[in-house]
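User: Show me a protein chain along with its predicted structure.
Assistant: Here is one chain, sequence first, then structure tokens.
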Amino acid sequence: MSKAVHFETTDGKRWIGRLDGDDIVTAGEAPAQGFVPDEAGWTAIVAADGERHALADVHVLAPVAPGKILAIGLNYQAHVEETNLQRPDVPVVFAKLPSSVTGPFDDIVIPVEETRTDYEGELGIVISKRAYRVSEEDAWEYVGGFTALNDVSGRRAQLETPMRQFTLGKSFDTFTPLGPVIASVDSVANRDEIGVKTTIGDEVMQDGNTRQLIFDIPALIEYLTRGVTLEPGDLIATGTPGGVGDERTPPRYLVPGDVVAVEVAGVGAIRNPVRAEDAAASVTDRAQADAA
């Protein structure tokens, strides 16, 4: 049972390590992709015996920089019912851009144009080795670990624009908080029954369990690898339980000042403050970056 952390120390260096209570035991310098939960990666985490850092003294980063993020829609019956949509016969798949990934405790930044920013707490599956045309029977061999994520969704872009811009609305910068760790599969009591809970402040918004998935993890891997190769470090977002803000009466969207948390049993919780984009500062920062 291990939990891998990707973190930055005050000197700006990035490391991977093993979570040990409220400390991190350093395993080594972090590669560009962060922690990839393949056999070599887990061997290094288990054997970690380097410098210890208090979790509170470092900046915890997203555990991995996935090459691909494939997300599943309408994968809990309660979410199907709240949307008044038909239960899918095959997994509903969309992509999130890797540039949307942010750290487990970093800010979610609402773009100026977005008026319906929603939360979607989910279990994330991180792939451990190249997977192509994997059978359901063999699928667990390709799961490197679990993580928590928030599939933050700009419903205005996703649902109000012509042709419904799913990829754009799901991929704004900071719209995929991820972490705080990648937990080995044996870190959870039952890999088929993993709790997923979303809260805003003290209010529980979603409280689901992966035993309620319409398409379970092996079925998703089998379906996704028909014609698509998954690489080590790629991320599958398995779907969100019922209780999203857009389907409440009245709707409950994320607003500046909120702190939204997603807790996955056996993994831990991400907690992200929400703020509005400073449009003027953003334009200045980008102009300076272009001039550099």
